[in-house]
């Protein structure tokens, strides 16, 4: 029986700078996650951190990481050919069967684009999987924009709105993502649609509220939480909110449940 908490050393194949503070690490591994799952990345004697999978394929996986503490700072010191230790994948991914043959609305803020990137790639590569894809992506400013090449490519496949919170930039609109929810033609979807919202907790809260104002039922909204996940197997209790363990019950949640997950 496999040890679900045993880290495995994996070679770093490539490192790509995405923005001023975020880098994508491509790692050699046979782990095959579901879209929306996370892994624990670690460095011996330093610590570990939960990171969502931003893309994956046969024999490799990508993690888009922001340097925000001791562990991620040490990861940023790594180079191709060095090793990272991985364990997982953990948690519940996106309900892909529910999304199939639906109109998909995906709304992200900042690094919230990373946990849906692999799913967007699937929708791009398999255009018959969904009826349509409406993508709203927001970043604080142009220095924080992730996956620039893919954002351009997705314009050719999806209906897109790209926005910066407080900055004018060619090809981008100015404002918070919440301001653009009303532009989604929900009334044309014949009730065959689902909404995914990922970003900082306040962004998810107010974006979900905007969706409900547009008549979207709670059960059609899905969120992803990244909250203090440590052991990833429901033993340490760091990610617990009331009776919910985010690492086990999430990180993806339906809004009917997620709207009550308040610290």
Task: Describe this protein's structure.
This protein has 263 residues and is an alpha/beta fold. The protein has a 7-stranded antiparallel sheet. A 7-stranded mixed sheet has the order 11-10-9-8-12-13-16, sandwiched between helices. A two-stranded antiparallel ribbon has the order 14-15. The longest helix is centred in the last third of the chain and has 13 residues, at 201-213. The model has no long low-confidence stretch (mean pLDDT 90). The chain has helices at 70-76, 96-99, 114-125, 148-154, 201-213, 246-249, 255-258, and strands at 8-17, 22-28, 38-43, 47-52, 55-57, 60-66, 83-90, 103-109, 132-139, 159-164, 173-174, 193-198, 221-224, 240-241, 244-245, 252-254. The radius of gyration is 18 Å and the shape is globular. The chain starts with 7 loop residues before the first strand and ends in a 5-residue tail after the last helix. It has 2 domains: 8-90, Elongation Factor Tu (Ef-tu), domain 3 (Beta Barrel), CATH 2.40.30; 96-258, Rossmann fold (3-Layer(aba) Sandwich), CATH 3.40.50.80. The chain has 7 helices and 16 strands. A hairpin with a 3-residue loop joins strand 3 and strand 4.
What's the helix and strand layout?
Layout (H helix, E strand, L loop, with lengths): L7 E10 L4 E7 L9 E6 L3 E6 L2 E3 L2 E7 L3 H7 L6 E8 L5 H4 L3 E7 L4 H12 L6 E8 L8 H7 L4 E6 L8 E2 L18 E6 L2 H13 L7 E4 L15 E2 L2 E2 H4 L2 E3 H4 L5
Parallel strand pairs: 8-9, 8-12, 9-10, 10-11, 12-13
Antiparallel strand pairs: 1-2, 1-7, 2-6, 3-4, 3-7, 5-6, 13-16, 14-15
């Amino acid at each position: 029986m496999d040890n679900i908490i045993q880290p495995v050393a994996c070679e770093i194949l490539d490192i790509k700078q995405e923005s001023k503070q975020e880098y994508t690490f491509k790692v050699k591994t046979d782990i095959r996650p579901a879209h929306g799952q996370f892994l624990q990345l670690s460095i011996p004697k330093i610590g570990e951190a939960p990171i969502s999978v931003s893309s994956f394929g046969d024999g490799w996986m990508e993690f888009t990481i922001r340097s925000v503490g001791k562990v991620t700072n040490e990861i940023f010191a790594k180079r191709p050919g060095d090793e990272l230790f991985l364990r997982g994948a953990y948690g519940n991914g996106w309900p892909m069967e529910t999304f199939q043959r639906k109109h998909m609305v995906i709304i992200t803020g900042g690094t919230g684009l990373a946990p849906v990137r692999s799913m967007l790639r699937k929708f791009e590569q398999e255009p018959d999987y969904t009826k349509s894809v409406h993508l709203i992506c927001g970043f604080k400013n142009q220095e924080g924009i992730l996956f620039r090449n893919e954002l351009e490519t997705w314009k050719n496949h999806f209906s897109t709105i790209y926005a910066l919170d407080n900055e004018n930039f060619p090809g981008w609109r100015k404002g918070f993502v919440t301001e653009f929810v009303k532009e989604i033609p929900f009334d044309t979807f014949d009730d065959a649609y689902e909404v995914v919202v990922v970003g900082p907790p306040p962004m998810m809260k107010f974006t979900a509220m905007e969706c409900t104002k547009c008549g979207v039922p709670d059960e059609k909204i899905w969120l992803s939480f990244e909250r203090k996940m440590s052991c990833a197997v429901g033993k340490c209790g760091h990610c617990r909110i009331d009776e919910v363990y985010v690492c086990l019950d999430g990180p993806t949640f339906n809004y009917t449940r997620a709207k009550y997950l308040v610290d």
